[in-house]
From TrEMBL:
<feature type="domain" description="AB hydrolase-1">
    <location>
        <begin position="37"/>
        <end position="147"/>
    </location>
</feature>
<protein>
    <recommendedName>
        <fullName>AB hydrolase-1 domain-containing protein</fullName>
    </recommendedName>
</protein>
<dbReference type="InterPro" id="IPR000073">
    <property type="entry name" value="AB_hydrolase_1"/>
</dbReference>
<dbReference type="Pfam" id="PF00561">
    <property type="entry name" value="Abhydrolase_1"/>
</dbReference>
<dbReference type="InterPro" id="IPR029058">
    <property type="entry name" value="AB_hydrolase_fold"/>
</dbReference>
Length: 316
């Protein structure tokens, strides 16, 4: 069952393979209420759309869903470039083919949240992103700056490692293979809450992610994601800050108090990246109880509640 997908658990989803302008294909799962905004749900590393399996059923009657497989992570095609703007544009291009002319509420975790951050700062009217939920990140530039703290450097060692040109070969050459490398890194970021860990591992999730990363294209694509995160993405954020471009749509940042919150004053950090003059809601929700990075899997009921409230306000 290592090759199960989100549709295995939720057969009510429609599976889409959408051709995009890069010449590749974006795989997604969707559920259409027929009108209104679409919740664009985007996963991170080292995972797939499968990470949303515990939460999406609770939202299916309140908002249309577009749950994407990140380009370059083994299910969608490799993108022509791995920077967040290029990947985000491909995702929204696919969404607009499945849901023409619909407003978008972005909900991203980890790398999916970083893509969302890029897109809401760009604030391109044709993308029609009306609000966003970003889960367990601070801005990329701020994360790199935190590496001056030795504890942060160790906790997030994979950032510089995955960004080096030889990372794919090193992962492929790992003693027990890239699947075992994936298992180790998933265990490192999970929380200490035993019930949360058990929930995270339900439905053979670790087997799914480990199997996904046995695909050399997935290894190469995800490393490309981190390489862009060390170069093009940081350069774009530096330019944003110099020129005063910040988040100007309603934003909720949800984070693990014991993981991301241990390394950062999350609310203070984000304060420098949000346009206070825009008059839009900015909300911060730290989740404690020793839950770790994988919040939609470790404490799905908390994510269901928070996102459900946001949908009630911005998903109509």
């Amino acid at each position: 069952m290592a090759d199960q997908t989100l549709k295995t658990i939720h057969p009510w989803l429609q599976e889409n393979d959408t051709k995009v302008s890069s010449g590749g294909t974006v795989k997604s799962y969707s559920h259409d209420l027929g009108s209104g905004p679409v919740l664009c749900v985007v996963h991170g590393w080292p995972q797939s759309a499968y990470m949303w399996r515990h939460v999406i059923a609770s939202w299916k009657d309140s908002i249309s869903l577009f749950i994407v497989e990140l380009p370059g992570y083994g299910f969608s095609s490799l993108p022509p470039a791995h920077d967040k703007r290029t990947v985000g544009t491909l995702i929204l291009e696919a969404l607009q083919q499945v849901f023409p002319s619909r407003p978008v509420v972005w909900c991203g975790h980890d790398r999916g949240a970083r893509i969302g951050h890029r897109m809401i700062v760009d604030n391109d009217p044709k993308h029609n992103i009306t609000s966003a939920i970003l889960i367990d990140i601070v801005p990329t530039k701020e994360q790199w700056a935190a590496f001056a703290n030795p504890l942060a450097s160790v906790a997030y060692y994979h950032w510089p490692f995955l960004a080096i040109p030889t990372a794919p070969q090193l992962i492929e050459g790992f003693n027990s293979g890239p699947g075992e490398f994936t298992r180790i890194n998933l265990s490192r970021a999970q929380g200490a809450n035993s019930a949360g860990v058990a929930k995270f591992r339900e439905d053979l999730a670790i087997d799914h992610y480990a199997h996904q990363f046995t695909n050399p294209e997935c290894v190469a694509g995800s490393c490309g994601d981190y390489a862009a995160g060390a170069t093009t993405d940081v350069e774009a954020q530096e330019k944003d800050q110099r020129e005063g471009r910040k988040v100007s749509v309603p934003l909720m940042v949800v984070y693990s108090a014991g993981s991301l919150g241990r390394m950062h004053n999350v609310e203070k950090v984000w304060g420098g990246w949000v346009d206070g003059k825009a008059g839009k809601e900015v909300r911060f929700e730290g989740i404690g109880d020793e839950f770790g990075h994988y919040l939609p899997e470790e404490c799905p009921e908390k994510i269901v509640g928070l996102v459900g409230e946001w949908i009630g306000k911005y998903g109509k």
